[in-house]
Amino acid sequence: MALAAEAIGQPDGVEIEKARSHWSRAWGRFRANRLAFISLIFCGILVVTAIAAPWIAPYHFTETNPEARLAPLGTEGHLLGTDLLGRDIFSRLIYGLRTALFVAFGAELASLLVAIIIGLSAGYIGGRVDQGLMGITDVMYAFPSYLFAIVLVTVMGRSLWAVMLAIGISSWVTQARLVRAQVLSVKEREYVEAARSMGASGTTISLRYILPNAVGPLLVTTSFAIPAAISAEAGLALLGLGVQPPTPSWGSMISEGIGYILAAPHMLFLPATLFALTLLAFTWVGDGVRDAFDASGESR
């Protein structure tokens, strides 16, 4: 950023200091939000648990115990009971968490890549490229994203990667529009013009000078998109279009538990409760991130 700063007569250190103060103010406001901060810690624990699933879970998710089918809570060796096949519920909840977070974060990464490419190209190049890409975006926006994910899973199969890509490919529209709007608001500013006049390429300008201005808004949308992806994965599983068994999914566990709500209610309430708490935690984090950036924007 030094090249552009020198060209407009402003020290690069000033820009860096402004960026630091902006992010530090946003972080301070987020940390002051107790509910959001506690939710962030809870989400961090979930992520660590998912990564360490093979070491935390007492059993593999495919391991069965025919002698302990539909075991209730507190059964020796199966703290949270077992399902119809005698599989440990606690272990399957942990591996189901791993499935949910893998799909959610992977889908959001795919969605961000598509959104950034389309949004940057449309906003910076403009003209017919902008019209064409935004036309595609409008068509995608008019098509229900969940229905599109169902179609993609049906075509690609029910593998973990297929579910992840289906959710990601069907959910990039809002972020692409956001990136384009940020590009349009920034690309005519002085430091961008200075970089352009000094011979910087379009790719360099887009990635180094324009895209960083969209990081804050993208962080807000991403924090809300992750629980949406978790919910979409569970919804596909409830429809029988989730990841292929025996890979555990909270949606499939809830679906199985509905049939045994009287004989073994823990099969339904445990995954449903964990699912709800996870969605709430990520949503509260999203609320905190949104409020932090909105407030920091007002204070400037």
Automatic annotation (TrEMBL):
InterPro entries reported for this sequence: BP-dependent_transpt_permease, MetI-like, MetI-like_sf, OppC_N
Keyword Protein transport: yes
UniProt keyword annotation of Transport present: yes
Ranges for domain ABC transmembrane type-1: 97-286
The entry's keywords: Cell membrane, Membrane, Peptide transport, Protein transport, Transmembrane, Transmembrane helix, Transport
Residue stretches spanning the membrane: 35-57, 100-125, 146-169, 218-239, 260-285
Localization terms from the record: Cell membrane
GO CC terms, sorted: plasma membrane
GO biological process terms, semicolon-separated: peptide transport; protein transport; transmembrane transport
Region forming the signal peptide: none
Stored Pfam families: BPD_transp_1, OppC_N
PROSITE patterns: ABC_TM1
Membrane topology category: Multi-pass membrane protein
Entries under PANTHER family matching the protein: OLIGOPEPTIDE TRANSPORT SYSTEM PERMEASE PROTEIN AMID, OLIGOPEPTIDE TRANSPORT SYSTEM PERMEASE PROTEIN APPC
Similarity-based family: Belongs to the binding-protein-dependent transport system permease family. OppBC subfamily.
Record's protein name: ABC transporter permease subunit
Source species taxonomy: Bacteria, Bacillati, Actinomycetota, Actinomycetes, Jiangellales
